[in-house]
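In line with agreed milestones, the collection of sequences with tokenised folds has grown. One record among many is set out beneath this paragraph:
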Amino acid sequence: MRGEALMVVLRDVLKRQPFADATVIAGHTGVNRPVKWVHIGEIPNIGEFLRGGELVLSTGVGLSTEEQRRTFVLGLVKAQASGVVIELGAYFTQIPQDLIDLANAHDLPVIVFSHLVRFLDLSQEVNSLLISQHHRILEDLDALSGRLRKVLLSTEGLTALFEASFDVLKRPLAYLSRATDDKVQLGDWPFALVPVRQNALHPLVESSPAPYLRQTISVFGQPVGDVAILLSTNYVDEYLYLALDRITTAAAQEIIRMDTLEKRKRQEEAVLLEQLFFAEHPSETLLQRCRSRYNLTSTRRYRVCVVPNDSAAPKAHAAIQRLSALLATALLSQTDRDIWLITGREGDITNLPQLLGTYLGERPNHIGLSAPYRDPAQMHQAFSEAYDAAQVASHLDSTRPQCYEKLGAYRWILATPPDVLRRLVIHPELGPLLQPEHGKETEGLLQTLEALLTFNGSKQEVSQWLGIHRQTLYARIRALKSLLGHDFLVFERRVAIENALLAYRFLCSQGEMPSRAAPPSS
């Protein structure tokens, strides 16, 4: 396959034998214009009847005045004709200077025969060249289609498809996905390609920052990416239009194939993961499938990750997917949450919270992670841990993933029934503070209590953190001492109150307890 342009240009026509006696007298820089057809025209407004790329043959019979010649030349320029051939004879003994000057100003080639010629011979010669070139285009397109079919049948993927296209075209080629950051760039591009949003359902010439041909890959009516071919000029031959259309069609077929396989894989994976996550005693056959599929050897570990389907979910999903280069991931999607199985080397799984944190930034993410495990028989336990950790992450509106092994007091809070927490943990310590008669003062007292515990009783730091006057703080402290006793900051009592506050806030976030609750009845 040749890499040069396949279109017929005026320079090629001038090399043919019938044009041996012709002389280019104007528009010398325009000899690379494409020639698509030959047209004989004598009227000044001939440009109104052209479509572009025509080589116009004329005797000059209708160009006797300067105005007629001006209309004639500007019409050819506007129609993007490839050039004009004029024979000297009965109507022109020499080409008027005004016609030459105007043609030079617009780089329109003017070819002159100093003697009479048969326009029929010129037309036949050019048309035979065009037909020959058209057959060559069809042969080259057939060769390109053969290469594309071979890649599709070998299921080598999109990158191999574009590499084969580049090898055939011998022109810089690029692919940009619209759904991901995927990019394939082959050959030397003089500028950085950026994603576009305007759809090009058919090959479209883009002129900035340098000319290139672009077409959008459409799958079931949805744009999924764009393929671009760098051009050497703004003139595009028919072969490149047709070749790009074939490449985008083949790419759409490959994307559909990959999507179908991916959906089937996800379905199979969902069945397997559902049994592993929710069966307390999975069969040995199921465990062996899990070890084989996820490469769970003695040197590898896994964590289960739960992501609630809330407003923070998209950022969490993006962070997990970015880990795919380092760790293996599998997904089970449910209505209210997504459950990920993340496997890898022991050190990477241990450091998974830190790895995720580098991608998440400082925004809340509500990710819950189990402790690291090796045995797939413990996956049900791992899921339970990740679920609990996700509950805590949502409660805290956390900006980092919550790991079960780092939950501290929340582990026993989650493991204790709410009525037991209320009866044995919350009301013995906070009961007097939660009485309904305190009304709106309750929340302010709770916040003050939490601040005093956080800042080890420092009144200056507490007042600054709460944004209240020192006298207001003193009044609240007196109220707390009256309700809880003077020893509420003593170590043993302080630990009990801190746990009670954690349990109380958590139950409130879960709807298990109103913000102000009376003590339970005995």
